């Protein structure tokens, strides 16, 4: 059974009773947690017309939160997983991976990229000559030593010259971006949340930016001696006060 089939089976009507048992455990856990802070779950005030929240007509808090929160959440998760695990997306992604040199060099035929070619046809410069590009792409990596072949999409993008492989370059560029789950700007938001606290509200913008960059790019090595030398060359006047 495929991954998408397993998801459909999990949310099938046959598992309604099991889902009810799971919801009962969730709600009991929520009641226990809120009791620790002196809060008792209750049904929000209902009116004939409601714009800012669900106006579900129920008799108990358990039924209300199940219909207003749990069921919409599960429907959203199911929709997202179906989109992510769509068989069409799997076929496109698999065909893009076939362009990696370590796979191209060990196969007898040209890489099968039919699904990706059909899906991204409008993004390619000249899709009618892809077969010729694939032939030259295979010859390029078959004549390269195993140790010199790239093993990832990011490493493959550099030796894939756009002038010689315009279509393959575009497809590999797409492959490099598909795995991105968060942008660098999102990292900066999380970092500033830790740096800009009420105890550091008077921090200057220059210092704040410097600390944020160090925190975001933590994987980079910082050589203290080079930092001191650069500071001494740019700010020689400050050394007089040392």
From TrEMBL:
One Pfam family recorded for the sequence: Dimer_Tnp_hAT
InterPro entries (alphabetical): HATC_C_dom (IPR008906), IFN-induced_PKR_regulator (IPR052958), RNaseH-like_sf (IPR012337)
Domain of life where this protein originates: Eukaryota
Molecular function in Gene Ontology: kinase activity; protein dimerization activity
UniProt entry keywords in alphabetical sequence: Kinase, Transferase
Occurrences of domain HAT C-terminal dimerisation (ranges): 161-217
Protein name: 52 kDa repressor of the inhibitor of the protein kinase
Organism: Stylophora pistillata (Smooth cauliflower coral)
Classification of source organism: Eukaryota, Metazoa, Cnidaria, Anthozoa, Hexacorallia
């Amino acid at each position: 059974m495929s991954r998408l089939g397993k998801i459909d089976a999990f949310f099938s009507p046959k598992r309604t009773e099991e889902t009810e048992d799971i919801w009962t455990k969730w709600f009991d856990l929520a009641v226990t947690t809120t009791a620790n802070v002196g809060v008792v779950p209750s049904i929000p005030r209902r009116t004939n017309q409601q714009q800012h929240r669900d106006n579900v007509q129920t008799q108990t808090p358990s039924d209300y939160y199940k219909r207003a929160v749990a069921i919409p959440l599960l429907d959203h998760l199911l929709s997202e997983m179906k989109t992510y695990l769509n068989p069409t997306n799997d076929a496109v992604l698999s065909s893009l991976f076939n362009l990696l040199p370590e796979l191209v060099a060990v196969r007898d035929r040209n890489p099968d990229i039919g699904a990706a070619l059909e899906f991204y046809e409008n993004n390619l410069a000249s899709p009618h000559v892809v077969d010729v590009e694939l032939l030259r792409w295979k010859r390029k990596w078959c004549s390269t030593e195993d140790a010199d072949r790239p093993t990832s999409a990011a490493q493959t993008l550099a030796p894939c010259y756009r002038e010689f492989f315009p279509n393959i370059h575009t497809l590999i560029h797409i492959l490099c971006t598909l795995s991105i789950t968060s942008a660098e700007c999102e990292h900066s938001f999380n970092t500033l949340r830790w740096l800009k606290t009420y105890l550091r509200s008077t921090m200057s913008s220059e210092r704040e930016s410097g600390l944020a960059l160090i925190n975001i790019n933590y994987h980079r090595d910082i050589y203290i001696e080079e930092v001191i030398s650069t500071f001494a060359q740019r700010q020689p006047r400050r050394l007089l006060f040392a």
